[in-house]
Amino acid sequence: MSDSSIPSVQGGDSPKGFAFALSAYLLWGFLPLFMKAISYMPAPEIIAHRIVWSVPIAGAVLIALGRTDDLKLAIRSPRIIAMAALTASIITINWGIYVWSIGAGRALESALGYYINPLFSIFLAAVLLREKLSVQQWVAIGLAACAVIILSIEAGGMPWVSIGLAVSWGFYAFFRKTLPVGPNQGFLLEVLILSVPAIGYIIYLQSTGQGHFGTTRLADMLWLIACGFVTAVPLMLYANGAKLLRLSTIGIMQYIAPTMIFVIAIFVFKEPFTTSTGVAFGFIWAALLIYTWPMVMAALKARSAR
Known about the structure:
The structure is a single chain. This protein is mainly α. The protein has one domain. Helices cover 78% and strands 0% of the residues. The protein has twelve helices and no strands. The two termini are 32 Å apart.
């Protein structure tokens, strides 16, 4: 999903930036439909093709923007390569959990994970960066923890999909801040690093007759190639949109995708929605309201001041 490490403008919101960001969140919101359609394929194979087919798309965007020199400089730095390898590893875990969860009929847990994500990020900032949180933020974190406890009691164990998605994306965003390259360059560097094991894995699958690429089914090949588009395009749109929006605007918009996932999980995938699940989501929505309210007020105040 979105990379909260990308800086945004502080002066005002650009209509172009809003269009970019909205397009990204809508694409992320519809992503479960795509992943469900190819859920007959193993998740590791899907992840490998997401990586490999993202490379030419990200490369083309960078060439079009004329920012290849930044990437060349980054590739020459062992420190940047090591940092990018770390963030690439973390985002692979996030993708793996997400793809598996959709195929396994656990899209509701995915939605919950992305709802929890911003709350986990501010908790991470308090713990690792010693940032001082407001009473409102601590209350929001507490409510999110209550939601996790409720779901754990109902399921007889932790909601690992939700926690895994929130934690992996939270750490990805945290470490991504330390990568001294732009968002587009950073993404291409990450998928370039990941493409080495990904290509090796795809070759292994094909050579052992387990792969779906290059089979007699043209649809399989097209689905796998499309994995690159559904991975790279929304991330690139978001990266460029976030530069033209206030942090408060991005903070409010980030709930578009998990809300769409939530609706799709219930009304399209027909996943069970129990009373306990409803109570847990109620706690999460209350937490997000408390967390987001200052952003909403700041946005309204800025708009009225124009």
